[in-house]
Amino acid sequence: xxxxxxxxxxxxxxxxxxxxxxxxxxxxxxxxxxxxxxxxxxxxxxxxxxxxxxxxxxxxxxxxxxxxxxxxxxxxxxxxxxxxxxxxxxxxxxxxxxxxxxxxxxxxxxxxxxxxxxxxxxxxxxxxxxxxxxxxxxxxxxxxxxxxxxxxxxxxxxxxxxxxxxxxxxxxxxxxxxxxxxxxxxxxxxxxxxxxxxxxxxxxxxxxxxxxxxxxxxxxxxxxxxxxxxxxxxxxxxxxxxxxxxxxxxxxxxxxxxxxxxxxxxxxxxxxxxxxxxxxxxxxxxxxxxxxxxxxxxxx
Length: 300
What we know:
Pfam families: UQ_con. It contains 7 helices and 6 strands; from the N terminus they run αββββααββαααα. The chain is an alpha+beta fold.
C-alpha cells in the first residue's frame, strides 16, 4: 500500500498506518488489513468463539472507516453467511457507526475485531443487520463458512493461524466481551443517518497498552469525545458548529433591520404627504407649484 498517496499529516492516516503495521501478522482469532488501493476500507477475518455454535467457523467481512477516525467509529459489514448478521449491510453494534455516542477514540480495529467475536453468540434484539437463525441453521453455516472465498483476499480459511498454546489471554478477552457486550437499536437522533446508511446498504484508536482497551460498553455520559489526545481536532469541529450557530442567529436580525428600515421610510413619506395636504387645504400653498417656480428661477 502506497502511503504517499495520503496526507501524512492527517490524524486518521497516521492512526491507520500504525494499526496496519500492528495487525500485519495474523493470529489464531483474527486478521485484518486495509485494501491496497484504499486505506479507509479494510477486510477482516475472524474465527467463531469457542464453546458456541459458531466454533470453528471462519467469517469474513469489511470495515469501512470514516475520514474522522478515530474520533468517529467504523462501519462493519459481513460477507460470510453466518446466521447472526445480515450480509453486505452495515450492522448495528455499540462499536459501529450506528452508535457514535458509545465509541471511544482509544479503541482500535483490534478492539472491534475482538468485540465482533464476542458479539457473535449474543441475541440480536431486533437491531439493524441482526439475524435470529436457529442453532441448527447456524451450525450448517458454520461448517460452510470455511469454504468461503473472497474475490480480494482469496480463501479465508488460509488467513488465520493454527491454534497455539499462547492463545489463552486472547480467549479470555473474547469471553469477557461476550459476557458484557450487547447489541441495541440506534437512538431516534440517528434517524437521518439510518436513512443514508439504508441507501448505502442497498448499493453496496489503537492503545499503547493492552489494559487501555476498555470494554465497549460505555454510556453516553461516560464517553469522552476529547480522549486519546485528540483535543485539537475536536476543538476545530466545535468551532465550526459555533460559527454555524452564529449564522443562524444573525439571519433574523438582518431581516428585522430591513423591515425597520422600510417601515421608517414609509412613515416619513406618509407624514410628508399629510403635511402637504394640510398646507394645501388650509393655506392654499401648493408645494409642488412652489418647487417648480423655484427651480424655474434657478434656470438662466
